[in-house]
Amino acid sequence: MKRTLFILIVLLLSVGILWGMKRNSPVVQTAHVSEDTPDVPQPVITKESFSIEEGETFASVMERMGYGYADMQEVLDAGKGIYDFTQIVLGKNFVIRKKDGVFDAIVYDINSEEQAVITKDSTGAFVVTKQDIPYDITEKEVHGVIDSSLFLAGNQAGLDDRTILELADIFTWEIDFATVIQKGDSFSLVYEERTRDGQRGPSGRIFAATFVNQGKEYTAVRFEDPDGGIGYYTKEGDSLQKPFLKAPLKFSRISSGYSTARFHPVIGRTTTHLAIDYAAPIGTPIMATGDGTVIRASWNGGYGNFIAIRHNDTWDTHYAHLSKYAVKAGNKVSQGDIIGYVGSTGWSTGPHVHYEMVKNGVKVNPLTVELPAGDPIKDEWRSSFEEQKKKYIDFFGDR
Ligand SMILES: [Zn+2]
Question: What is the 247 CA–ligand 1 centroid distance (Å)?
């Protein structure tokens, strides 16, 4: 009896061990497992792409992917509040992903950062989620010298347009990229290069940068503060963000500077020009140079279509000769918001924006007026800032 029980226990244990082995490692042919073979075989992932063609609807793409009307309707319902599949864009793709030949998901890129993912739950019902696009990220350092334009130098250094614009944005409060960039100016930056399935994707964040303009060096470090704010600071910890942008247009040229006496071609006599004129094609977006409230967006004589923004008790800015308005009087605007578009209305000889800064009711020269600096790193964040900066010590170290 005792012996029978013993055998039974041994048998049960063996079954248990075997069961455990079976569950934990599907690969039991240990003889064939070499050191660099993972215990669990990776599923074979296949992807099939369906490009959205001219005149297509979500229903027709679904049909091409092998789904019927009921499936399409179910996905639309499952996507409510997450992504509206009736908004799909011509030329973009739906990708059916299979794992070992079994349906895993249908993926649609909403933009460069997010994708809508259609999966099935255990009951076989469609589920829609929004997910960050999974890029492979490598941190890259590049350097460029400007010969003719920032864009050209950036492209030659291997940067995409988006990163070049972002680089200009980081320094936009210190450097007026519309007017002061010179041959020989240079830049360096550490940024995220992102790839997906071996293809290069849009670049990601810029972590550190320097820009040398006319011999003067500017530095920038990205800092995410403990409250979730993200900003760029000099390597000393001063904010790069000023209450005003240097110019209301991103890229343009000055066609008329600030002057207390100039000959006005339209009115035919000498007058003052207490503003800066930036020439740019009709329709170029005009940005609010600072946070504030629109106090006027209407015709104003020789100014043509005109916008005035009150920023605070001290400061106003004016924008004239617009072709179109993007705001109304009473609207609150943030720095960089598009308020209207370049035109040639009023006393104007060609498309440009006439930009005035008014300090305590007096027009001042936007190019030379001393602007208040942004807040430096808060004392309680200083150690966290120094910690984040440490990663780029070599980057800043050799400059
Ligand atoms: Zn003007």
Answer: 14
pLDDT in tens, 270-323: 778 899 999 999 999 999 999 899 999 999 999 999 999 998 878 899 999 999
The rounded Å distance from CA 164 to ligand 1 centre is 29
Fold of the domain spanning 45-132: Nuclear Transport Factor 2; Chain: A, (3.10.450)
- Kindly give the distance from the C-alpha atom of residue 43 to the centroid of ligand 1, in angstroms, as a whole number: 65
The fold adopted by the segment(s) 253-364 is: Glucose Permease (Domain IIA) (2.70.70)
* pLDDT for the residue 248: 95
Residue 226 CA to ligand 1 center (angstroms) comes to: 44
Query: Between the CA of residue 145 and those of 150, 153, 252, what are the distances in Å?
Result: 8, 6, 20
Cα(283)–Cα(292) distance, rounded to whole angstroms?
Answer: 23
- β-bridge partners, 240: none
Query: From the CA of 374, how far away is ligand 1's center (Å)?
Result: 29
